[in-house]
Design a protein that fits this description.
It contains four helices and no strands. It is mostly helical. It folds into two domains: 33 residues, no CATH class; 72 residues, no CATH class. It is globular and about 45 Å long. The chain starts with 19 loop residues before the first helix and ends in a 23-residue tail after the last helix. The mean pLDDT is 76.
């Protein structure tokens, strides 16, 4: 589950907003916490690639500026979706990508 723009005290285990189902999931399983960034593109790059944003080149506030050439480097690495597809899952990209500014070569098809 990826949730954007949520503070660390907003949810889970007595946070500012009641979330009993999320609390039960958190208490009954493995609670993974990741190193997130202050803007969405670096966090998305880490989730999709399994690499720290500083290794993908998408770690800055100004990463995806209009007309820029920044993108998630795919070769020689694969994305989470590609890994899942390789073991039989169906995958889809829904919503904003924000990991490239020059479609279609650096956006999901």
């Amino acid at each position: 589950m990826v949730i954007d723009d949520v503070g660390h005290t907003d949810l889970l285990n007595g946070g500012d907003f009641p979330a009993p189902h999320l609390d039960a999931l958190s208490q009954g399983g493995v609670n993974l916490r990741s190193n997130v960034q202050p803007v969405c593109s670096p966090t998305r790059s880490a989730l999709m690639s399994g690499r720290y944003p500083s290794r993908t080149g998408l770690q800055h506030f100004t990463t995806l500026i209009s007309g820029g050439s920044a993108k998630l480097p795919l070769a020689p690495h694969t994305t989470l979706a590609e890994q899942l597809k390789g073991v039989g899952y169906s995958t889809a990209a829904i919503g904003k990508w924000h990991l490239a500014t020059r479609p279609p070569l650096s956006t999901p098809l």
